[in-house]
Amino acid sequence: MTDHDKPTLEDIAGSPAFPNLDQDGDGHGGMTLLQYYAAHAPITMADAVQALPGRCLTTAEKIEMLAKLRLSYARAMVEAHTSAGDKG
Fold this sequence. Notes:
By secondary structure, this protein is mainly alpha-helical.
C-alpha cells in the first residue's frame, strides 16, 4: 500500500464500526469508528470537572467538556489507527 492509497483520517473516522447491511448491501452503516471510540472513551464526568478547575460549573458545561474530551480521545485513537497503516 502506498501513501497515496492509504485511507485518510477522515476516511477512517467516517467509516462504519459496525455496519448493518442485508444480503443486497442495503441498510445503514451503523456508528462510525470515531463515534465508537468517543462512546467508549475512558473519560468520566470527574475528568471533565477537573479540566475546568476553580469554577462552579453548570451541568451543561460539564457535559460539554465531557463531550470535548471524549471526542479529542476518539480523534487521537483514529489518528493512531491511521498512522499504524496496515501494521494492525
